[in-house]
């Protein structure tokens, strides 16, 4: 089984790679698939001097919600890469709709390959992508290799609690990794609990509707779609009760 496919499924909360072809349909009503463009924009505005020369790399950009909002608000140049062709097609369409197609380049690709060739960015964004690039330490080192000295890294992930799933590092463990990898935490934004519940409810309603449609058109795959809905619900519950979603802004030191 390909580990790229396995991790891709996991990055979108699918238990099985069999679901991958259905993900664009299931997620057709959502634009933001993980990170909050508003939070990233506000952290950039506070911490980073941006000009029309600023180059941003959005790895596993999904449908381009973060990239396009940054290009629109800041006039910076953004390259977004994602492995799902339909997401990239959607991102290109949205870039035109927002009038930022000259500032945005969206490509289909595996980010494990992109990190080997994409270099010298001012800012790299890794929003809600999980372990696609390896464990947390490997991920930071790979992200770091794409930015200039003194460049910035956004990671959207979660802080675990002492007794939560060990897959989620505690804040102290993240800080230790920052020290080991030569980056410093400039700012962190924890997800607001009320906002999270309302986003989760809204997104779950959209996904449930599409799951029900697919169950009608593909009755033989009913259990596949049901298990996707269950894993989405479990992830929402985990985020609401057991871990804290966080956007971290790091600087290479
Ligand atoms: C939860 S979504 C987050 C999307 C986006 N960063 C955002 O915050 O809206 C995870 C994304 O990772 C992408 N992905 C997973 N594995 C990948 C890989 N090896 N190369 C490129 N993209 C990948 C998926 O296609 C999906 O769009």
Mean pLDDT level = 96
Which oligomeric state applies?
A: single chain
Distance between the termini: 38 Å
**Going across the major beta sheet, what is the strand order?**
3-2-1-4-5-7-6
By CATH's scheme, which homologous superfamily of the domain at 34-192 and 244-252 applies? Vaccinia Virus protein VP39
Form type: globular
What percentage of the residues does DSSP assign to strands (E)? Answer: 15-25%
Total count of helical runs of at least 4 residues: 10
Largest sheet: 7 strands, mixed
The helix-strand sequence is HHHEHEHEHEHEHEHHE
**Small-molecule components bound:** S-adenosylmethionine
State the CATH architecture of the domain at 34-192 and 244-252: 3-Layer(aba) Sandwich
Low-confidence stretches: none
Q: What value does the Rg take, in angstroms?
A: 18 Å
CATH topology label of the domain at 34-192 and 244-252: Rossmann fold
Number of strands: 7
CATH class of the domain at 34-192 and 244-252: Alpha Beta
Proportion of helical residues: 40-55%
Question: Which structural class fits the helix and strand makeup?
Answer: alpha/beta
Describe the structure in your own words:
The chain has a domain at 34-192 and 244-252: Rossmann fold (3-Layer(aba) Sandwich). The mean pLDDT is 96. The chain is built from ten helices and seven strands. The termini are far apart. A seven-stranded mixed beta sheet has the order 3-2-1-4-5-7-6, with helices on both faces. It is 47% helix and 22% strand. α5 links the parallel β2 (77-82) and β3. The site of S-adenosylmethionine (SAM) has 26 residues, from α1, α4, β2 and α6.
């Amino acid at each position: 089984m390909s580990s790229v496919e396995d991790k891709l499924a996991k990055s979108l909360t699918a238990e099985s790679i069999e679901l991958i072809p259905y993900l664009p349909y299931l997620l057709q009503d959502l634009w933001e698939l993980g990170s909050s463009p508003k939070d990233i924009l506000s952290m950039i505005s506070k911490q980073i001097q941006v000009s029309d020369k600023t180059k941003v790399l959005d790895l596993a950009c999904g449908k381009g919600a973060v990239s396009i909002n940054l290009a629109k608000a800041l006039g910076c140049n953004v390259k977004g890469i994602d492995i799902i062709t339909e997401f990239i097609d959607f991102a290109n369409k949205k870039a035109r709709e927002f009038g930022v197609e000259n500032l945005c380049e969206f490509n289909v690709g595996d980010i494990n390959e992109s990190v080997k060739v994409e270099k010298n960015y001012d800012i790299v964004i890794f929003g809600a992508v999980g372990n696609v690039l390896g464990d947390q330490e490997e991920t930071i080192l790979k992200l770091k290799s794409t930015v200039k000295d003194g460049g910035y890294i956004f990671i959207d992930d979660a802080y675990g609690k002492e007794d939560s799933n060990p897959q989620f590092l505690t804040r102290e463990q993240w800080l230790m990794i920052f020290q080991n990898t030569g980056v410093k935490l400039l700012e962190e934004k924890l997800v607001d609990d009320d906002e999270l519940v309302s986003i989760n409810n809204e997104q779950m309603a959209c996904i449930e509707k599409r799951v029900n449609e697919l169950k009608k058109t593909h009755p033989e795959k009913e259990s596949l779609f049901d298990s996707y809905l269950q894993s989405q619900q479990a992830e929402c519950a985990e985020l609401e009760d057991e871990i804290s979603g966080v956007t971290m802004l790091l600087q290479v030191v």
